[in-house]
Each structure stands twice: as C-alpha cells, then as structure tokens.
Amino acid sequence: MIRVLLADDQELVRAGIRLVLKHAPDIDVVAEASDGPEAARLAVRHQVDVAMLDIQMQGTDGLCAAERIAGSAPSVRVVMLTTFGEHAYVERALKAGVAGFLLKDSTPQELIQAVRRVASGAPVVSPQITRHLIDRYLDTEEKPADPRLSRIAELTSREREVLAMVGTGASNAEIGKRLHLGEGTVKAYVSRMLTKLSCANRVQAALLAHDARLLRGGG
Question: What is the pLDDT of residues 5-50, one digit of tens each?
C-alpha cells in the first residue's frame, strides 16, 4: 500500500485529489496538511511514501516543505502540484531533486499513475511542463556545455529517436503513436535512455536532445 500525504491550503483541492486517489486500491491518503510546516511534520509522523505538495501555500511554500521533508525523511518521494505561470518554481524544484511535477488539472488516471510511478522510484513530469521548460531554456543565450552530451553516442538508434521526441515534450503515448510502439515499450526505452545519459528526469533528457541538435537532424 502506498501511503500518501496531501498538502494544499485549499480544502476543496485536497478533497478532489483525495477522492481521485480513493479509487486506487493500492493507494491510501493517510494525512493532509494546509501549509508547509504541517506537511513536513505529518510526512515524518505518518511515515508516508509520497508527499503531494502544492507549490504555493500560505505561510511556507511547498518548495520549503519539500526541502524540510528531504532533510527529515529523505525516503519520501515528493510530487509538486502546479499550475501554468509557476514555472520559475518548477525550475528551482528540479534542481532540488523533487521527484515529480503535475499540473493540478491532470486527469484522474494521470494522478494515480504518477503516485505509483513516483513511489516506485521513477520521476514524473507532465509533458506540458516539459514543453514550457524547454522553451524557456531555448530562450537562454548562454548555456554551458553539458558533459553528458558525449553519452548520446552510446544510445541505440531507437533510443535516439525516443530521445528526440522527448525533446519535443511528447508524452509516452504520443511517442508510441508516432513510432508505432506500445506505451509499455516506450516506457522501457525512456527508462534505459535516462539511465545511459545519467538524467534524473525527462526535462534533463529533453534539454540534452536540444543541445545535441537531435531535433534538427544533427548531433
């Protein structure tokens, strides 16, 4: 059973997410918090597996709560709940090692699958967030060379194709449709590709794909 903590200063939002997760037989919402300090305390007290935190809460924001949880309960996997317009927070959290990012308007199935994937150790980033971060990155004029670029040569041709599509912000379902592969097969390719490139998540891999010019036929 995956033990989950929900933290959002809006009770209605917590109720909606709780209702969605209630339909998953392997997920149990064991605690709820309305601010960051309470979330950090409850994550430890209830020994949760996954903490789903709103990025912006009154008092202490979700990022501060995530940092506190990382210090007091490093085994807890943190998922940040965000809306469009908060991507500066997302970039900061990526650097802090947060396990996942989901838009608040994600579908019920996306929420459930995200909890399961994060609990299993896999990173989760909404494709919409990936696309936005890529656009912001491409607008940056000066970018230091990434030492991981050389590892792209170790990828198979199929893995390079998958990497190029991840670079566009495509979801696994979109990649599967384009390459005529099952979604499970795509997930396996993405997992191997991330491991070979030492990337923690799809966003890092997408930025590498852009640096390697894979989307323009180069690299």
Answer: 999 999 999 999 999 999 999 999 999 999 989 999 999 999 999 9
Amino acid at 217: G
Q: Write down the CATH number for the domain with range 143-216.
A: 1.10.10.10
- The architecture (CATH level 2) of 2-125 comes to 3-Layer(aba) Sandwich (3.40)
Domain spans, the chain? 2-125, 143-216
Instruction: Map residue 127 onto helix, strand or coil.
Output: helix
Q: How far is CA 7 from CA 1, 39, 151, in A?
A: 19, 6, 39
Q: DSSP letters along 158-183, please?
A: HHHHHHHHHTTT--HHHHHHHHT--H
Query: If we measure between CA atoms, which residue out of 58, 59, 56 comes closest to residue 81?
Result: 56
Using DSSP's 3-state secondary structure scheme, residue 8 falls into coil
Quote the pTM value: 0.65
